[in-house]
Amino acid sequence: MLRSALSCLFLSLFALSLTGCLVVKSDVAKLDDESGALTLEIDATSTTEPAPAEEPEIDPEEVAAQEKKVEELEHKLAEMEIDFHIAEMERDLAHEAMEHRFEGLRRAIEEAEHDMHMFHEFDRPTREYQSRRSVIFAETRLQDSRTELEQLELLYEGSELEDGTAELVLQRGRMSLARAEEALGQTRREHEVEMNVKIPRSEEKLQRAIESANRDLHRAEAEAEIKRIQEERKFEKMERELEEKSEELEKAIHDLRNMTGVEESPQPVAWGIF
């Protein structure tokens, strides 16, 4: 009979567990001395409810300070993004100016090399020819003057002219010959200067122009490489600072959310460059 009572007890507990929470008193099970029956006193009206969670206390001053920090970080991040965009524009303009400079330097080299080519093809041959031609003319003039004087001397040799005409004609011939000799000497000196000084100097000047143009181009290329390295380091630093500031802003927003329990998100700051 005891076993049957226990079975009834378990079935009753199982059935009641399906309907709700039960509170069983400490003396729930009693055994009747006369009948041997097991009786249960069960209070099915009482239920257990969880205690409400306590809400965290919010300090308005701390929340206000955190909100101000978030706002300041948002504006700082926006300013850094504007500075980064301006730096990109300045870099593009600098690259455009540098490329324009390269074009001018390369054109200067081409022009200097063209001038050297024209000098060897036309200028130098023409100047050498004209200088040699001047010497030949001077030599021809001297020879003509010498021949003319010889003919005059043969013509007036033994002449008995009393008015001095013969001597006057011969004197003029001798003076013409002297001037022709002097002109030939000067022309030969000028020829030497032209061939050995002026023409070589002109060639050296053109060569220096080519070398100078090449040096300018090499210098510009070195400066451009230095500028590229500096820009690369500058933008790496700016990107790193932007990333750090963005992480700082995210942390501040997270801290504010923990304070208030309200989902917050960074407010985009509208900006533009016109």
Descriptive report:
With 274 residues, the chain is mainly alpha-helical. The protein is built from three helices and two strands, in the order αββαα. It has a two-stranded antiparallel ribbon. α2 (60-156) runs antiparallel to α3. The longest helix is centred in the middle third of the chain and has 97 residues, at 60-156. It starts with a helix and ends in a 14-residue tail after the last helix.
What is this entry, summarized?
By secondary structure, the chain is mainly alpha-helical. Helix content is 77%, strand content 5%. Strands 1-2 form a two-stranded antiparallel ribbon.
Strand order of the largest sheet: 1-2
How many distinct helices?
3
Based on CA atoms alone, the radius of gyration comes out at 58 Å
Name the average pLDDT: 82
Helical coverage, percent range: over 70%
DSSP strand (E) fraction? Answer: 5-15%
Largest sheet: 2 strands, antiparallel
- Described by the principal axes of the CA atoms, the overall outline is rod-shaped
